[in-house]
């Protein structure tokens, strides 16, 4: 029996009730990897589904794919919930040093997986699928309200990073960079943004791959009012994480300026100054 090639690349897919998308996702990923122009050998890649106890047939679906020869496995979480914590769990479980996160809903086209993985290197420790590159029609198939929400969320994050699309859930990171991150927000909505800040990824280490969003074919959207509130909470935490020293310094300067102004004003009102 031939030995399996070592795994250098891991594709992490957080999932909840996405059974209808798992088979097309996995088969399309490996079809793209088997193309003659793929820069990544398919036998060096694993796919990890991190499922939040969906009980929708996902486990049986993955078992069937395994029997057909696909290098895919599933982690079923019974005590944890949430997209970001699922991604973090998958990254810790990954065998590969080059790790890619993508959604299970096929809105992140699997055909881009080889290019995204190949963009990772010791000098490019983070790769981001961006919808804001030249020639990309951003979220062209989305309804207007989704476009407005997406653009607004991006604008709010711009002071935190130079990345063109930090809101993208289609991203990759080298394991050594991931392990440098501390205090990751497991309840946050955008784990890529959290990693960019807390792993201290420099601008020159970010590679960007233009892509257009696909259309969800199965399941339901996870975008809710609660998710948007969680994102705003995450932003507040990240602003404090990155700018707390500056904020504290500005606050101290403001207090000192107030004290000096008050001292000057009181001096001007004192009897001695008025006698002059």
Automatic annotation (TrEMBL):
Key words, A-Z: Endoplasmic reticulum, Glycosyltransferase, Membrane, Transferase, Transmembrane, Transmembrane helix
CDD domains the UniProt entry points to: DPM1_like
EC top class, as a word: transferase
Its EC number(s): 2.4.1.83
Catalyzed chemical reaction(s): a di-trans,poly-cis-dolichyl phosphate + GDP-alpha-D-mannose = a di-trans,poly-cis-dolichyl beta-D-mannosyl phosphate + GDP
Keyword Transmembrane helix carried by entry: yes
Transmembrane feature ranges: 239-261
Pathway assignment: Protein modification; protein glycosylation
InterPro entries hit by this protein: DPM1-like, Glyco_trans_2-like, Nucleotide-diphossugar_trans
Chief place where the protein resides: endoplasmic reticulum
Compartment(s): Endoplasmic reticulum
Gene3D superfamilies per record: Spore Coat Polysaccharide Biosynthesis Protein SpsA, Chain A
Keyword Glycosyltransferase in record: yes
Quaternary data: Component of the dolichol-phosphate mannose (DPM) synthase complex.
Family under the similarity heading: Belongs to the glycosyltransferase 2 family.
Function, in words: Transfers mannose from GDP-mannose to dolichol monophosphate to form dolichol phosphate mannose (Dol-P-Man) which is the mannosyl donor in pathways leading to N-glycosylation, glycosyl phosphatidylinositol membrane anchoring, and O-mannosylation of proteins.
Annotated protein name in UniProt: Dolichol-phosphate mannosyltransferase subunit 1
Organism: Somion occarium
């Amino acid at each position: 029996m031939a030995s399996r090639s070592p795994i250098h690349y891991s594709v992490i897919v957080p999932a909840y009730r996405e059974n209808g998308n798992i088979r097309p996702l996995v088969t399309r990923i490996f079809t793209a990897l088997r193309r003659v122009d793929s820069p990544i050998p398919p036998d060096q890649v694993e796919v990890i589904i991190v499922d939040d106890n969906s009980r929708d047939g996902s486990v049986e679906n993955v078992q069937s794919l395994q029997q057909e020869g696909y290098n895919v496995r599933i982690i079923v979480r019974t005590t944890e919930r949430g997209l970001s914590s699922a991604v973090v769990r998958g990254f810790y479980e990954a065998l590969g040093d080059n790790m890619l996160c993508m959604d299970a809903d096929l809105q992140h086209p699997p055909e881009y997986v080889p290019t995204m993985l190949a963009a990772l290197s010791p000098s490019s420790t983070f790769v981001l699928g961006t919808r804001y590159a030249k020639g990309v029609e951003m979220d062209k198939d989305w309804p207007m309200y989704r476009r407005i929400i997406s653009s607004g969320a991006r604008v709010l994050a711009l002071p935190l990073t130079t990345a063109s699309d930090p809101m993208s859930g289609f991203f990759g990171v080298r394991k050594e960079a991931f392990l440098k991150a501390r205090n990751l927000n497991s309840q946050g909505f955008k784990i890529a943004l959290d990693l960019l800040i807390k792993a201290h990824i420099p601008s020159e280490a970010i590679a960007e791959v233009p892509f257009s969003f696909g259309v969800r074919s199965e399941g339901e959207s996870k975008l809710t009012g609660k998710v948007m509130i969680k994102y705003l909470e995450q932003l507040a935490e990240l602003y404090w994480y990155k700018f707390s020293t500056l904020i504290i310094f500005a606050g101290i300067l403001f207090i000192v300026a107030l004290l000096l102004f008050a001292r000057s004003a009181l001096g001007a009102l004192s009897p001695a100054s008025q006698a002059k």
